[in-house]
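Chain entry —
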Amino acid sequence: MAMIGFIGTGTIGGPMASKLLEHGHSMLVFDIDKKATQVHVNHGARAAANVAEVAQLCATVFLSLPGPTQIEDVVLGDAGLINNGESLTTIIDLSTNSLALNRRIAEFAQSKNVHYLDAPVSGGKLAARDGTLSVMVGGDEVAFNGVRPLIECFGEHIFYMGLPGSGTLTKLVNNQIFLCASVLIQEGFVLGAKAGIDPSALLKVLKASSAGALLARAPLVLSRQFNLDVFALSIAAKDVAVALESASAVGASMPMTEAAHGVYVEALEQGLGNEDFFATVKVLEAAAGVELPPLHKPKKS
């Protein structure tokens, strides 16, 4: 069986690489934090010394990296995949990238006879561990069909979206909607609290009203449990920024996303980056001069 490369075995990448190992695939893993690959080595993977070694030994390489800066370095850098890819044929990038960089990489990779598939994932750490992630793929369809059995090792809902960048843009829209909508929900409840309305009573009414369909995540984003390790605010702020960058690249205006991004930026400036993304409520509370009490089960009338 051909050896598969996997670069970036952190919070999400690590469980995905483990799923590939569980399905019997031979793996060569690399992460700048050597501790992040140890669990895979313990289960039969080989650890690479650097990115270039992965490119030289593996035809198929998965990436799970923090963002565009790291993606560009790993794929296009002098010590990166394409410039050292003696055996390389396909890169499957599971990271959240910018649309412009995604398209630039795909074009350059094609000129080197390498397929670059943008295949960002959604579902978080639990879905990664369970192998139930959603995966949105853009790029050459024949190349995608060739690696789909590998993606199925950790993905339950797999969608082919079309041309290079389509998977990336789908993921950015997904994150833009749920991250910015969370701020809008918090804003409404801060308004209610400032006016003296009990948030739990307000939530009960809204769930039974026209806003109800939009409030599935309200208990989480109003929970005041900011250290559940669901999705770091720093990463959320980065994703919203990348969505805005990509919107600019295609000439789309996103004023509501820009406003929500301002709240994320202020939260970062207040040192909340390591807390969960819904710590944005602290920014809104400070501006309003009120703190939301924890939700409780409203008393029966």
In short: Residues 169-288 form a domain with the N-(1-d-carboxylethyl)-l-norvaline Dehydrogenase; domain 2 fold (CATH 1.10.1040.10). The mean pLDDT is 96.
